[in-house]
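Data availability (excerpt). The following record was deposited with the supplementary files.
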Amino acid sequence: MPEKKTQRAASKDKKEGKSPSTQAGEYVHEEIEHVREGKHGVRSTKQAIAIGLSKARRDGVKVPTSRTASKSTRNKAAQDEAASHDHHRPAAKRSGATTSALKKEGHEAASTTALSSHAKKITAKRSAGSRAASAKKAAHTKGAAGPSAAARKAAKTRAKKAS
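Predicted structure:
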């Protein structure tokens, strides 16, 4: 069950007209925090993200599956979406079994280095055009204060590296 704080943040994102992936990001962030604070572990960063997306879909966020997703992933996404309409308590035995299985896994997958290398791996799979388009969109949606703040941050980083 997602925390109320996460649900509020996701609904705020929805009201602001942000994309479903941004809304789902709140749930993924929560999941990574759970792994970091030792609530449970995960085998990989990918698994932590998958759990977060699943929670988001079950909570009513309309996250589309990727075009390259496997059939089982698509089925799971459809199942999660169906579960968002049908509110019932999960089976205690099944829920407990999942939690105890996850407790045996490690916490390294939620570290900053693991998340960084995962992001780099995923980005490397994208085309240059796709990366350029998202960079342009990011620059466009940043607002007036964004570019100057980014410039200040860049200057600070350059100064740090110089010394």
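Summary of structural features: Residues 4-125 form one domain.
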